[in-house]
Design goal:
The structure holds two protein chains of two kinds. By secondary structure, chain A is mainly alpha-helical. Chain A contains five helices and no strands. Chain B is of the alpha/beta class. Chain B has a nine-stranded mixed β-sheet. In chain B, helix 9 crosses helix 10 (247-256). The chains are: A mainly alpha, B alpha/beta.
Chain lengths: 80, 495
């Protein structure tokens, strides 16, 4: 099944307060919406653990929005 | 006159009283106002019992108050102990015990004030909102006639056990940095300088306080935790021309905006604090058209010792030693190795500390018999260009700040579910992180709830940047025959 933005949001729950997560616009950069570096590294870690997909430094710099992360995971053939 | 505050800062202030020395949260401080604040605060501190040689612990955000208190302290002959304001109560308690200050200065409601009270040390609450009121009517003082080798500043750096090591620096050290790093960075009077590192860290101290004010330029001060979105806003609103930042923040600024970053006023940017990933360097160049200069230094030297200017760096390398500093790669007998051979990086130069405060064992271990400061980093040199290879010990940095594995381990071990723990640095994408490898006590099972509980427990005992972002549960840890954890094996397994 394809990964959705909501699947990614669910996985982010330990890293980002629910209030912030609910308001996040998936098409806008995460960093401008209350996600700091500690949250961002935690996101990368849980994405790698939960979806089994490693993120290289170059790829990491392209994953700016929730839509980017979702598209990246689907392209990598990740499973929910 | 050998008091750096008079010679470097106030002399400049006298020549251009109406120029903006600093900007903070939309407010301006001219050089003339800085002069007034420093001389009056010096008088206030003297009247509060700060005699020559006495230490004052200053725990303040980057602000006009920070400048007034730090420079005022040194002006009146005191020793300014600078410690970050994002630490926890026990850190301030330890720092007070180590430096025995006559006075603790902190923001309203800051935990350092409670630590001062507990230790029976008098305190002063300072804040930009009340600064004018604090110094009103206090007569200006003249500079205390310091000698070049009088200690005037102390910085705090993390030791391998997590306990702080205090690094004393003299007026002479400041003059040396002002000259050598000043020549290297070549700031101009019309520069507007923003450094992401706070002035309580060597990087922020020399960039913002020594070099920007020495050049008669304008310093942008951000009292808050370094933040990518705020930094981008300052770059455009304050028309910043020189940015000194850390890899994590360059990475986050790149993630904060789609497409190119139009930073029209920026002429020069530097990265220091930890290794700059090549991916971040290239992405920044593509997004801004600007190359990053690099700096490598140590709190023990209070400045960059190895550096390269924008456009001069070779990928993967840190640069060349800045004259008159010397960088040497040595073997286990402290003999210089052949070029191209990895070894332990040592430094020599005019601003290097004489030793840690009241820590003869740490000091003895930090220097070779002939006085070379050992950095704890492995490096290799070829044709005068140095490449930093990694640590000799298990220390690592997250967002440019030191993390001592032992300290994080100790915090996690105090949780009742944890039997053993080993902490390493790691990476996720282009960012560095703290990773805890945990063996649970028998009968305990791993769950999202337990993960949350462990992180919350860690957050209560550690400054925020030391809380592990990745917790890996494992049935056992790799140990030596004598039972010591082999953290390097955990690092290797993670890559």
């Amino acid at each position: 099944m394809p990964v959705t933005v909501d699947d990614v949001k669910k996985v982010f729950a330990p890293a980002v307060p629910a209030a912030v997560l609910d308001k996040m616009d998936p098409s806008q950069p995460m960093v401008g919406q209350g996600v700091d570096s500690l949250a961002l590294t935690l996101l990368a870690v849980v994405v790698q653990k939960n979806f089994g997909v490693a993120i290289s430094p170059e790829q990491g710099l392209q994953l700016k929005t929730l839509n980017d992360v979702t598209a990246f995971l689907n392209a990598a053939g990740a499973n929910v | 006159m050998q008091n750096f505050v008079e010679v470097i800062i106030l002399d400049r202030a006298g020549r251009q009283p109406d120029k903006t020395a600093a900007r903070c949260e939309g407010r301006s401080l001219t050089y003339g106002e800085l002069d007034h604040a420093v001389r009056s605060m010096g008088g206030l501190l003297r009247s509060r019992g700060v005699s020559p040689g006495y230490t004052v612990l200053i725990v303040l955000p980057d602000s006009f108050s920070f400048l007034a208190c730090t420079l005022g302290c040194v002006l009146c002959g005191g020793v300014a102990v600078l410690f970050g304001n994002r630490m926890i109560h026990e850190d301030y308690r330890d720092c007070i015990e180590a430096t025995r200050p006559a006075l603790v200065i902190a923001s309203p409601g800051h935990v350092a004030l409670a630590a001062a009270q507990e230790a029976g040390v008098q305190h002063l609450v300072a804040d930009d909102a009340i600064l004018a009121g604090l110094i009103e009517g206090v007569p200006h003082i003249e500079a205390h006639p310091a000698r070049r080798d009088d200690v005037c500043l102390m910085l705090v750096t993390s030791g391998t056990t997590g306990h702080p090591k205090v690094v004393p620096h003299t007026h002479n050290d400041v003059f040396a940095v002002a000259q050598s790093t000043g020549d290297f960075l070549a700031l101009r009077q019309d520069d507007v300088v923003l450094c992401s590192a706070k002035m309580s860290h060597a990087y922020g101290l020399f960039t913002t306080l020594f070099l920007t004010l020495q050049a008669g330029a304008t310093a942008v001060l951000d009292p808050d935790k370094p933040d990518a979105v705020n930094t981008l806003r300052f770059l455009s609103e304050e028309q910043v021309t020189v940015l000194a930042s850390v890899p994590a923040l360059y990475c986050l600024m790149l993630l904060a905006k789609e497409g190119e970053l139009h930073l029209e006023h920026l002429r020069c940017c530097y990265s220091s604090g930890e290794t700059l990933p090549e991916s971040v360097h290239q992405a920044w160049r593509r997004a801004t058209g600007l190359d990053l200069g690099l700096g490598y230094g140590a709190t023990e030297a209070m400045t960059f010792v190895i550096a390269s200017r924008p456009g001069e760096s070779v990928p993967g390398t840190a640069g060349r030693a800045i004259p008159p500093y010397e960088a040497v790669v040595v073997d286990e007998y402290f003999r210089r190795v052949q070029p191209g051979t990895p070894g332990h990086l040592g430094l020599r130069g005019p601003s290097i500390m004489r030793g840690y405060l009241n820590a003869p064992e740490w000091t003895a271990r930090a220097f070779t018999p002939d006085g070379l400061l050992l950095t704890g980093d492995m490096a290799v040199e070829q044709d005068g260009v140095f490449t930093i290879l990694g640590r000799m010990d298990d220390m690592f940095k997250v967002g440019g700040l030191w993390v001592a594995p032992a300290r994080v381990e100790s915090a996690l071990l105090s949780h009742e579910a944890v039997a053993q723990c080993a902490v390493t640095g790691g990476t996720a994408g282009a960012l560095t992180l703290t990773r805890a490898h945990v063996v649970l006590k028998s009968g305990r099972t791993w769950s999202p709830d337990l993960e949350r509980a462990l992180r919350a427990h860690a957050a209560q005992h550690l400054p925020d940047f030391m809380v592990p972002t990745d917790i890996v549960v494992t049935p056992h840890l790799p140990l030596t025959a004598s039972g010591k954890v082999q953290r390097y094996k955990l690092r290797q397994a993670a890559t």
